Amino acid sequence: MNPEIDVRYxxxxxxxxxxxxxxxxxxxxxxxxxxxxxxxxxxxxxxxFMLGSAVPTTDVLTLDTIEDQLKMPYFTARRExxxxxxxxxxxxxxxxxxxxxxxxxxxxxxxxxxxxxxxSDDANxxxxxxxxxxxxxxxxxxxxxxxxxxxxLHLGSQETSNERDIKQLLINTVVDTCQLQMGLTRxxxxxxxxxxxxHQHDRRNEVYFYFDMNEENRVCHFMGEPxxxxxLFVANEEAIISPPWSIHCGVGTGSYxxxxxxxxxxxxxxDMDKFPPSALR
Length: 281
What we know:
This protein is mostly beta strands. It has a single domain, classed as Jelly Rolls. The protein contains three helices and 23 strands. The strands form five sheets. The protein has a seven-stranded mixed sheet, with no helix packed on it. It has a seven-stranded antiparallel sheet with strand order 2-20-17-22-15-14-13. Pfam families: KduI (PF04962).
């Protein structure tokens, strides 16, 4: 099955400052993920980063190459892939090796694995595999990361409305990767700010995928330069592509969680430039 592909070209900060709301959404927001029975990919020109999803129901889905963008005989010929399951239980098979993923468990797939497929235990409660991919220069082993394997950070407080647990699933202290990093952040009841102070990564890009939201709720995601901020209202299972020059933080109208994925210059999780609320305009 050939995956659908949506290509997003790199946008500079001067251009973005002149965009209206619809233009910002077209450039930085995606709402095509988690389509049942399909593999979907968004190819960005920020670090050649890709975000995608696979939601198998009755049929097994396969991870096929994308001829126009990759020009490779199979998807991971020159790429690594990170997967986090946010749906029902399922199995990812890599070159004949099966990895059973419960909700919020992760799998790292190194480059050089030609045959990759996705299945759900229950078609009525399908697995929802959220995926990130980046170019890879070395073939690291595949590794499943269960809930108990994650490195968990507890940050924020009730007083500042940003008490949250950051589950570092695919980072260099847990699994060897070339440049890909992924994790899952879940806010505590009553907290709404997902990242504060706002920050940017000048040496890598980041993508936020928001989920576990009620249909009527939204997250107001802030982006742009610190002195020229913009905002986008994001619905359940939508993602924001954050360029290296852009800040990122968000506040929700109700409970939610999000998956963050990064790729770029280094693997230092704390490599970020922070901007307190007083520095934002």
